[in-house]
Amino acid sequence: MGFKLSEHNSIEILFNELSSDSLNETILLYDTIQSKRFNDSSHCFLFNMKEQGFSLKADYCIGLDWLGNTGRYLYVEPKINKRSTRIFNTITDSEYEILGVEEDSHSIESDLLELDYLKMLLQVTNVPESNTELKGLIQIDWDAKPIQIEQKDDKLTPFLIVQYLQLVKAIVRKGLKKDYYKVQENLNNRVKGKILVSQHIKQNVYKNRFTNTFCKYQQFGEDHAENRFLKKVLQFASSYIENHKKLFGDKFIELQHTINYCRPAFELVSNQVNDYELKHIKSNPFYKDYVTAIDFGKKILKRFAYTITETTKDKVSTPPFWIDMPRLFELYVYSKMIEANPNNKSNIHYQFSTYGNALDILVSKEGSQMVIDAKYKLHYKNGHLHQDIRQVAGYARLNKVRKKLDVTDDRNIDCLIIYPDIENGVDDLSLDNIKYKMTEITAYHKVYKLGVKLPIIE
User: The domain spanning residue 380 has which CATH number?
Assistant: First the structure.
């Protein structure tokens, strides 16, 4: 049994509702649970022990995890309450900082919008510049006991499948890597490489095939272990998508096109790969696309226990995992900006490093220079956080940033906070449209905000 929450939501549970065991035993059991961090800026979930029970609050990550040793799990889904974007109409920013407003735990289902996180991921992986920045987006605890859930609630597998297909598509677009690989073959009237004596005796001498020789030799081409591994995982991905069309919705056709695009490239690649190769495939660090694709391929095969029939089940056992939605939002914004500004890609810098700090996005184009911070926080539609503004303003005062933007006078650099506006945000992130649509935060000089529309599941 588990607890289900949507993003930014919280619930309170009383101990007497949980178990028929003694109250003291139940309290001792739940007293071992601790809040879990994803990174320095996000929590997976927040746990607060109280006198008669406890509270669970979802933060900015979606995922699934065990609650200590209680035998219960927490499932956080990508659903956002529309009311959370309006809750700050009557609350000032200082009140927000002091009180820490929480969502109503009894939100009406019709008020919930489900973010299409797969469409966000497809957008990110379709743009080469953002596709290379996916590291650290997901955490999977392979050592923990798997959690059994309904297939429709599985957020991990579709996430891995989409990322893998986009990585393989990028590899196919460039062309499959060629390498030396070993071949064992029974040759007629010739010898090549090394004669395998034991196999030659069994295959030829005992059967009076005196003109044949069983040999082992190296050949240069595409049919090597890495490409065989990619093809094997592609078969798993294809089977999973075919058996769970509803899970992918309107993205099913796009993913099918991706599979059909990749398949012909593997025509000359064998699908004969043994279990040892599947589990111990090694990659060449000089081919970064292969390194990432093989890493995701291993996760997918491990997820299905290396058995393709596991892709057809309605109930699945999945390891605990967490997806960093703030980082996905950052990458989504970055990919949309790159896509909307094809002639100014070199002027859009992601994670510009400054003495231990990293700006989300820095725009260096003359006339559009600005420091951009992508905040996955819903309340910016009707308010703002002073701490966030102090952070982005501090970035704009760094000498390294001013040097990058070639600012030699005393003028202030524009600062922009981009936030999710589910219903009314902008979709066009061209630099001209950003300058036109962003609105100034009146309490500050040259600090602006802009809402970005996110895809939702209808």
Answer: 3.40.1350
